[in-house]
């Protein structure tokens, strides 16, 4: 029987520290540049091969990305999006190898175009990927020779030197009662910032009959200018039946700034 070679590419998160089990560690998860037209800046990217017995052959590439309305990452070919800065970037070693346990520090340079207008996109982004080019053989299953490769991405952000302003507005807040799904809240908000924005969403439920206050764990969010977002939160399973006021707080910025939305509903 002919054996089938199968290469599985594992794409690693750009938001968390990567464990040695993945076979590749790249950091930091985000790189920030601030500079106007013509500016040239350098940041450092660290790449480590945590394996004890396998060398890695690696290549650097770029892809554009954006957030979906629910905050998930969407990837696009480099140079596709209007806010792409992939063409502004150069890396000190686009191809390199790491011996077992070896680390390397790469220089990532951005050259902002001289022609960049003050009226252009306030934030430019791309994603830098480090990809393993020599997949490692894994256990054979049902005649398939499976080979595993990893790809790790970090997000690149650029904005001009203007004063950063962060603003988020709540557009709508709806309670959806339980039918075919569990009851949940639907929040819509708009990001009016001129820079990258990150913060937390907090929800509190006040029982109008007993005065009991139920709080949920904060949920982090990350957004780009002009993002229109939706956030869904299930009503806690242990929330007793009754009349409630739900308070949703968007907390962002260094202070932080807080925007509040409220809705009254009967929980059945």
Task: Describe, in plain words, how this protein is organized in 3D.
There is one protein chain. The chain is built from no helices and 20 strands. It is mostly beta strands. A hairpin with a 5-residue loop joins strand 5 and strand 6. Keywords: Signal. This is Molecular chaperone. It comes from Sphingobacterium litopenaei. Residues 1-20 form the signal peptide.
Keyphrases for this structure?
268 residues; mainly beta; Immunoglobulin-like; 8-stranded mixed β-sheet; 5-stranded antiparallel β-sheet; 57% strand; globular; disordered N terminus; PapD-like_sf
Short description:
By secondary structure, this protein is an all-beta fold.
CATH topology of the largest domain: Immunoglobulin-like
Biggest sheet, in brief? Answer: 8 strands, mixed
Spans of at least 5 consecutive residues whose pLDDT stays below 50 are 1-8, 10-22
Count every beta strand, where a strand is a DSSP E run of 2 or more residues: 20
| Computed CA radius of gyration, to the nearest angstrom | 23 Å
State the secondary-structure class: mainly beta
N to C succession of SSEs: EEEEEEEEEEEEEEEEEEEE
Protein name: Molecular chaperone
Keywords: Signal
InterPro entries: PapD-like_sf
Organism: Sphingobacterium litopenaei
């Amino acid at each position: 029987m002919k054996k089938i070679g199968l290469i599985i590419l594992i794409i690693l998160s750009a938001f968390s520290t990567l464990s040695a089990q993945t076979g590749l560690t790249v950091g930091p998860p985000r790189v920030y540049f601030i500079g106007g037209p013509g500016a040239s800046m350098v940041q450092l990217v660290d790449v480590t091969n945590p394996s004890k017995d396998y060398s890695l052959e690696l290549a650097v590439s770029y892809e554009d990305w954006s957030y979906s309305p629910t905050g998930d990452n969407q990837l696009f070919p480099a140079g596709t999006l209007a806010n792409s800065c992939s063409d502004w970037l150069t890396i000190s070693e686009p191809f390199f190898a790491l011996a077992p346990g070896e680390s390397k520090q790469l220089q990532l340079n951005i050259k902002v175009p001289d022609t960049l207008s003050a009226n252009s996109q306030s934030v430019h982004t791309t994603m830098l990927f480090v990809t393993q080019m020599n997949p490692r053989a894994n256990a054979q299953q049902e005649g398939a020779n499976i080979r595993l490769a990893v790809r790790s991405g970090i997000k690149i952000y650029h904005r001009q030197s203007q004063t950063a302003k962060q603003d988020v507005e709540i557009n709508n807040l709806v309670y959806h009662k339980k039918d075919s799904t569990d009851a949940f809240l639907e929040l819509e908000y708009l990001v009016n910032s001129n820079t990258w924005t990150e913060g937390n969403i907090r929800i509190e439920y006040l029982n109008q009959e007993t005065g009991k206050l139920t709080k949920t764990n904060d949920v982090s969010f990350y957004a780009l200018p002009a993002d229109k977002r939706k956030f869904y939160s299930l009503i806690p399973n242990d929330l007793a039946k009754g009349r409630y006021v739900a308070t949703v707080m968007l907390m962002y910025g260094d202070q932080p700034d807080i925007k509040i939305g409220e809705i009254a509903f009967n929980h059945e």
